[in-house]
Amino acid sequence: MYIAREASKVWRKVTTEISVEIQLLREKWGLLLAGLIFQYIHGLAARGVHYLHRPGPLLQDLGFMALPELGQEKGYLSESIFSSIFISFVLWTFHPFIYHSKRFYTVLIWRRVLAFLVASQFLRIVTFYSTQLPGPNYHCREGSNLATLPPPKSVLEVLLINFPRGVLFGCGDLIFSSHMIFTLVFVRTYQKYGSKRFIKFLAWFMAVIQSLLIIASRKHYSVDVVVAWYTVNLVVFFVDNKLPEMPDRTNGVPLLPLSTKEKDIWLKDEKDSKLKDEFHKLLNGNHGDPTDRRQRAQMNGRHDEDINHALSEATANGT
Predict the structure, then answer these.
(1) Helix 197-216 vs helix 178-193: angle between axes, to the nearest 10 degrees?
(2) Which of 83, 195, 311, 318 is 20 to 30 A from residue 177's alpha carbon, by CA?
(3) What is the DSSP string of 28-67?
């Protein structure tokens, strides 16, 4: 019975949140769709620069000198770190559908994230088309069949971008690292809207580790990673200041008007939450409002003074 009751509460939260997010999506769908379309444009640009790539000797790189080369067989390490950051962030952005404590709306935070990504990726496209460097990755070096692409036979061949092979084995889109764009945007977003201090520290630590693994795997030059660190942080800073601030949901007030049924569900959940908080306060021995406690203490003090005064008068009359 307890499991069924809690499951019904979770389901009410999910359905209520879905209805609210759908209303937001109806209002903000244009910018979200534009951000998603630009992800395809970014992939198309990376595919296009591969046709221009010409392999050559590796450039002198301080990071290559300092970090030992991991080799092709350990190239999965940086991808594993990136995948864990990516999946964790996506799951975190959808936690308002389940958890009672909420700080943001999923639609609004993804609208913000896509704005950061689009601005950073636009600068990236302009940068790697300006100058094509010989790729340091193993499939981009001289002698590899994947280092250069033959001229496309049709426009469709370019538009399909040979996903996912064309994304995984691209060459020429170096400055600056796309993996670091996503990582830093996600970490900066959690830094602002997340609540767990340890996870914030862990996220920045993983971003640093990923940077080192990218260089050690020879997927990028050090300049690709370094430029990403200061460019993405500056982009997020300036774009974030231009965007309107998201409403804070910690006060429990819904952003959009709810239907009668949704309002009843929301009020019931709020009542259950307040009852739980009051129960924990009673267990901890700190129930009640501090103002009420001060008022009761003052009233008790006056009562004691009245009793002492009456006793002193009775003693005086008796003598």
Answers:
(1) 170
(2) 195
(3) HHHHHHHHHHHHHHHHHHHHHHHHH----PPPP-HHHHHS
Cα distance between residue 46 and residue 74, in whole Å: 24
- Other beta carbons within 10 angstroms of residue 269's beta carbon come to 16
pTM for this structure? 0.75
- Cα separation, 186 vs 264, whole angstroms: 35
Percent above pLDDT 90 for the chain = 52
Lowest mean pLDDT among 59-68, 85-94, 104-113, 256-265: 256-265
Whether residue 57 lies inside any domain: the answer is yes
Q: How many domains does the chain have?
A: 1
Q: How far apart are CA 76 and CA 168, in angstroms?
A: 12
Contact of 111 with 27, CB cutoff 8 Å: no
Q: Rounded to 10 degrees, what is the CA torsion of 27, 33, 35, 39? A: 160
313 occurs within a structural domain: no
User: How far is the C-alpha of 46 from the C-alpha of 161, rounded, in Å?
Assistant: 9
Which residue, chain included where needed, has tokens 């609208």? Answer: 111
Q: Are 241 and 188 in contact (CB under 8 A)?
A: no
C-alpha closest to that of 124 among 182, 168, 210 = 182
> Has residue 32 been placed in a domain?
yes
pLDDT per residue as tens digits for the range 175-193: 999 999 999 999 999 999 9
The C-alpha atoms of residue 171 and residue 136 are separated, in whole angstroms, by 9
C-alpha to C-alpha distance for 293 and 70, rounded to whole angstroms: 65
On whether the CB atoms of residues 173 and 179 are closer than 8 A, the answer is no
CA–CA gap between residue 249 and residue 101 (Å, rounded): 8
Q: Residue 49 and residue 174: Cα distance in Å, rounded?
A: 10
Residue 22 lies in a domain: yes
Which of helix, strand or coil describes residue 242?
A: helix
Domain ranges, residue 210: 1-249
Pair 104, 249: CB distance under 8 Å: yes
